[in-house]
Write a structure and sequence with these properties.
Layout lengths: L3 H9 L7 H19 L9 H13 L8 E4 L2 E4 L11 H7 L15
Antiparallel strand pairs: 1-2
Helix pairs in contact: 1-3, 2-3
């Protein structure tokens, strides 16, 4: 099975290892964010595509982190707000999310 970084490098047409440290940081950040959303310690392999797609978006945004849109000579780019970058995957994430623990029956002791 091909790993996440290899898939990302293929999509971005990166043929050397010069960008590996940057990709490692981005992959780690996206993975940590997704783990927090899932409430799990590990990301299921079926959700690796989310890490790949969001990492590619963040990589393409390097140098334009604070911008919401950019327009140069008729070419316009609109970026996802970082708060909303997982929005297209909400239903998929919800299906894999850990269910909340049900409160147990308690006891009351009167003294």
């Amino acid at each position: 099975m091909v790993d996440i970084k290899t898939n990302i490098k293929t999509v971005l047409n990166i043929k050397d290892n010069l960008q590996d440290p940057v990709l490692d940081v981005l992959i780690n950040n996206v993975s940590s964010h997704l783990k927090a959303l899932l409430g799990k310690e590990e990301i299921p392999s079926s959700l690796d595509f989310i890490v790949e797609e969001i990492t590619i978006r963040r990589y393409n945004r390097i140098g334009s982190e604070g911008m919401k849109s950019e327009s140069v000579e008729g070419h316009s780019i609109s970026f996802y707000d970082l708060k909303e970058e997982f929005a297209p995957y909400k239903s998929i994430i919800a299906a894999h999310k850990e269910p909340p623990e049900k409160p147990g029956r308690g006891k009351v002791l009167f003294i």
